[in-house]
């Protein structure tokens, strides 16, 4: 690979580093054993990783059964570098500055923020400036920014965004021209899946369902994101639910997200309940009070969502399906209702659950996306570190 200060140079270095991350504490001798590299190569790589402050010598381990000198154990330097993740929603922005292991340093949340082509760079620059102010001193500084886009992204280009107008600007190039560290763009649902895979799940194959103004699915198979041709994989919200149904911005009629996205759910419940404003706490309370109309609506949305989820399970055969939604987090009973609708044999052994990340999984996916590229580790797992 092409070397830059924002990547680990050699594949062997990345391999040894990955073994250290996976094992938390490990000796040089054990690294030589499991990597199939000779001891001299391992010692040379370890010295380089120590010199560049990617790893640390941590403590004296136990000697082997045959005796001999006790080994010095090695561990990953969790504070070797910093990452920034941003989720650009259509009416909110979440951002996080973290150490490379995902440990939070600074969290930024902007609500009711309208994103469009004329203000997006200014908003991102403001977030980066704040992160730089809060950034502690580390050996490598900020080594990557990944931005989650609610729309179709392919090779750092925004190809289609149904709810904001960013597809006509080369945002990645503009930002990369402006900042020293690399800037990446990726679909928000894809990042959600990567975040769950990297920070919260032991499974190798999973699907996340992002239920926001639109509906998207992120797909990880054997530890790798499934992007599809031109970034089209996982567009579950644009599968047809009702033939010749409601018009969708994508050009189809009857798309799933025109019947059970968060916007549709909020708007329809607000109208049917004659609420002036939609309030999640009010919805949850009404559901728990067995409000007949609201319970009926929630059951309807669960049934519709289950149709889309059934399809994606049948096609992708994941071990795990995870919901990334403020609604299912506030009302976990909805996950159970959806689960109840998944009665075919393909869904029988699939685990269905809410997100297990401590905050927005797309943010953690953004951190993971940059970390993978900086460390040159494609199937990076940081479950036990954060």
UniProtKB/TrEMBL annotation:
Keywords: Carbohydrate metabolism, Xylose metabolism. Transcriptional repressor of xylose-utilizing enzymes. InterPro entries: ATPase_NBD, ROK, ROK_cs, WH-like_DNA-bd_sf, WH_DNA-bd_sf. It comes from the Bacteria. This is Xylose repressor XylR, ROK family. Belongs to the ROK (NagC/XylR) family. One of its GO terms (biological process) is D-xylose metabolic process. CDD domains: ASKHA_ATPase_ROK_SaXylR-like (cd24077). The keyword DNA-binding does not apply. Pfam families: HTH_24 (PF13412), ROK (PF00480). The keyword Coiled coil does not apply.
């Amino acid at each position: 690979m092409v070397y830059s200060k924002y990547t680990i140079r050699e594949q062997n270095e990345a391999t040894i580093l990955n073994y250290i991350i996976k094992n938390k504490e490990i000796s040089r001798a054990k690294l030589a054993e499991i990597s199939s590299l000779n001891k001299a190569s391992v010692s040379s790589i370890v010295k380089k990783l120590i010199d560049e402050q990617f790893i640390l010598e941590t403590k004296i381990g136990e000697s082997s059964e045959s005796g001999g000198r006790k080994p010095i154990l090695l561990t990953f330097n969790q504070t070797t570098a910093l990452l920034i993740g941003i989720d650009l929603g259509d009416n909110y922005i979440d951002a996080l500055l973290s150490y490379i292991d995902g440990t939070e340093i600074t969290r930024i949340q902007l609500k009711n923020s309208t994103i469009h082509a004329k203000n997006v760079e200014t908003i991102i620059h403001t977030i980066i400036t704040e992160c730089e102010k809060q950034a502690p001193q580390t050996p490598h500084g900020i080594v990557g920014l990944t931005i989650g886009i609610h729309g179709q992204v392919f090779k750092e280009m925004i190809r289609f965004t149904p709810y904001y107008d960013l597809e006509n600007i080369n945002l990645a190039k503009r930002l990369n021209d402006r900042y020293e560290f690399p800037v990446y763009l990726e679909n928000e649902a894809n990042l959600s899946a990567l975040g769950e895979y990297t920070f919260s799940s032991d499974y190798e194959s999973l699907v996340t369902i992002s239920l926001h103004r639109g509906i998207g699915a992120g797909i990880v198979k054997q530890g790798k994101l499934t992007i599809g041709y031109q970034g089209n994989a996982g567009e579950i919200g644009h599968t047809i639910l009702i033939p010749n149904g409601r018009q969708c911005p994508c050009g189809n009629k009857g798309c799933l997200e025109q019947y059970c996205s968060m916007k549709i759910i909020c708007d329809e419940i607000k109208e049917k309940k004659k609420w002036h404003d939609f309030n999640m706490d009010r919805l949850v309370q009404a559901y728990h009070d067995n409000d007949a109309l609201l319970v009926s609506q929630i059951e309807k949305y669960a049934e519709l969502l289950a149709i889309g989820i059934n399809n994606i399970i049948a096609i992708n055969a994941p071990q795990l399906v995870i919901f990334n939604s403020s609604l299912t987090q506030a009302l976990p009973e909805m996950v159970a209702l959806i689960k109840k609708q998944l009665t075919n044999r393909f869904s029988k052994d699939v685990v269905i659950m809410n997100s297990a990340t401590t905050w927005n999984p797309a943010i953690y996916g953004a951190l993971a996306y940059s970390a993978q590229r900086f460390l040159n580790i494609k199937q990076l797992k940081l479950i036990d570190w954060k």
